[in-house]
Amino acid sequence: MxxxxxxxxxxxxxxxxxxxxxxxxxxxxxxxxxxVTRLAxxxxxxxxxxxxxxxxxxxxxxxxxxxxxxxRIEDTDLKRKVDGAVEAVIGALKYFDIKFDEGxxxxxxxxxxxxxQRQRAEIYxxxxxxxIAEGRAYPCxxxxxxxxxxxxxxxxxxxxxxxxxxxxxxxxxxxxEIYRNLDAGKPFVIRLRSLGNPENKLKLRDAVKGEITVTExxxxxxxxxxxxxxxxxxxxxxxxxxMRTTLVIRGEEWLASLxxxxxxxxxxxxxxxxxxxxxxxxxxDGETRRKLSKRKDPELSLEFYRKEGYYPRAVKVYMLTxxxxxxxxxxxxxxxxxxxxFPFKVEKMSKSGALFDLDKLNDISKNELALLDEKAMLxxxxxxxAEFGTSAQxxxxxxxxxxxxxxxxxxxxxxxxxxxxxxxxxxxMEFIRYFFERPEAHEEYRAERETVCxxxxxxxxxxxPADDSQAWFGKVKEVAxxxxxxxxxxxxxxxxxxxxGSVADVAEILRIATTGRAxxxxxxxxxxxxxxxxxxxxxxxxTENP
Length: 546
Fold this sequence. Notes:
Blueprint: H1 3-10, H2 18-24, E1 36-39, H3 49-64, E2 68-71, H4 85-95, E3 102-103, H5 121-133, E4 137-140, H6 144-156, H7 175-183, E5 189-192, E6 201-206, E7 210-215, E8 222-224, H8 232-242, E9 247-251, H9 258-268, E10 274-278, E11 281-285, E12 288-291, H10 302-308, H11 312-323, H12 327-333, E13 354-355, H13 358-370, H14 374-388, H15 391-395, H16 400-411, H17 425-431, H18 449-462, H19 469-482, E14 485-486, H20 489-494, E15 501-502, H21 503-515, H22 523-530, H23 532-544
Parallel strand pairs: 1-2, 2-3, 9-10, 11-13, 14-15
Antiparallel strand pairs: 4-5, 5-8, 6-7, 11-12
Helix pairs in contact: 1-5, 3-11, 8-9, 11-13, 14-16, 14-17, 18-19, 18-23, 19-21, 21-23
């Protein structure tokens, strides 16, 4: 068969030579040992924890080696494309401090642009034409119905499904049959003519898993679809070569495709990049573990962490504990250090499923937020409220001096021990709500209603915002004693049966009336922040509403 003639018929016209592209996309001028890594999502609009997991690993590997991290958008499947998806990817990863050096909508070194695959269609066609001319690719005229019937036959026979061997019906069409189909205008795809043998095993070194063995590829995979747009497999091989990728860190679900990618690189005459397949993120579900699911687990989506208001560094810290086995020990010794100082190593990445535990992330988040000062916390909460907060929550920041006083109190700033009450921005905003909005509901008082009202009325008569904390507490003690409560805790402990309760119980009445809650930071300071008018209004309201 005249393969050159066939290549011209299938892809007519002059295409640049491989040498042209090698010159156009030269090796990068980087230091010895520098890694070029990438994140290459499809523009589906859904960016998830697995993307972040891989992005952190790729970013750390690239930047610790003095290399490059770039963003490529694999948009060959228009059916999956969602408007605004690329901006969503960039925005979500920027939130978690993933810094790209170049890429789609980012710019950078234009030498390796464009970073959208559909804009690189000519390159893929040039190399598809080359493979056809070499007899390594051929046209396939099978319809969807024929391929579906083929899969059903293979399934019924309990054989591996796919287009290979005796099932590759268009692989050995005669020249006459091919041209008759083309003359009839039959649509076709271009398939790789695989030289693999499933009896053969390939021993490869995975950058994460170490030595692995895979079965040689024998599938005649599609490399160009009927519209002339490449499949993922073909495009990724060409792009990784000409964008000069040195290391591909990706999810272990891609291990099954590795033999295809190895054969494509070899068929194209390209040097293969190194591959590292990171473990899947797992979740404990009863007695078993399973992969995090888009359908079942809202925490898989990165949007979940933004809407809830997780502190970005906290999420990154937790991801690093899952990514590198020695990170947690380093972090405990260096809780406030720049995370970029951690000596991240691909070899230390988990080889099997990593258990994702939201409770552990919450603990890390509390610790990280407790390291902030009140001004940094204000900025974090204000930014979150601007994007996700209610109108009322946005108004909390109208008086930033008041907000700073609230945060100083609630975070224990200046105290002997920092409080760790805040987990996320949304939870923190709910936690401090009573400073800005009167409580709609109150926790139940342990005292009888008549006693509650009497305590509140008596305290209102003596309350003065000019009192210091000692004088204020003295008045609370006086009210306690007047209503049968022990003014001193030691007296109550010595003879509890002699009293209705202690001064702490009276303070709880005042606390619930003021904030709606039985447990809060220092009540004297809360009243100082609220001011006399608001404090009196709340206490009076509590006496009037059962």
